[in-house]
């Protein structure tokens, strides 16, 4: 474990607290702008300080963490959880709805591939206007 006055890079910290599986994935996230401090991107070499709040986007998942301690080496999950506080609001866990939550339209078996006309009708059904009309009825 690192003491409070020791210097620790953000990519190494995110790897040590088990937010990323490898340190190189944490570095890539920093380079891609998915790790932010006060709304601005953070480089992988940024020095972590206790008390700072970071926003991390990992796929469609978003996390907001508060640094409560520095951890230089990767350990078990109990030790890692003691070095940060998850402050992610429940509604912000996912940035947008997954395609798994979208309604699925089924076609009868054996009808073949949809024609252009069928496809346009399907797209029309999936538009928000159609769903609003369906909710009214």
From TrEMBL:
Keywords: DNA-binding, RNA-binding, Stress response. The keyword Cell wall biogenesis/degradation does not apply. One of its GO terms (biological process) is cellular response to heat. One of its GO terms (molecular function) is ribosomal large subunit binding. CDD domains: S4 (cd00165). The keyword Magnesium does not apply. Residues 8-70 form the RNA-binding S4 domain. InterPro entries: HSP15 (IPR025708), S4_RNA-bd (IPR002942), S4_RNA-bd_sf (IPR036986). Belongs to the HSP15 family. This is Ribosome-associated heat shock protein Hsp15. The lineage of its organism: Bacteria, Pseudomonadati, Bacteroidota, Sphingobacteriia, Sphingobacteriales.
């Amino acid at each position: 474990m690192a003491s409070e006055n020791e210097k620790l890079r953000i990519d190494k910290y995110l790897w040590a607290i088990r937010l990323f599986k490898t340190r190189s994935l944490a570095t890539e996230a920093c380079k891609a702008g998915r790790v932010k401090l006060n709304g601005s991107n953070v480089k992988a070499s940024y020095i972590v300080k206790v008390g700072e709040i970071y926003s991390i986007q990992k796929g469609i998942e978003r996390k907001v963490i508060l640094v409560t301690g520095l951890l230089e080496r990767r350990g078990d999950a109990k030790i890692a959880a003691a070095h940060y506080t998850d402050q992610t609001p429940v509604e912000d866990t996912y940035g947008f709805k997954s395609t798994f939550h979208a309604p699925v339209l089924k076609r009868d078996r054996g009808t073949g591939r949809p024609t252009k006309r069928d496809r346009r009708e399907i797209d029309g059904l999936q538009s928000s206007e159609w769903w609003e009309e369906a909710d009214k009825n």
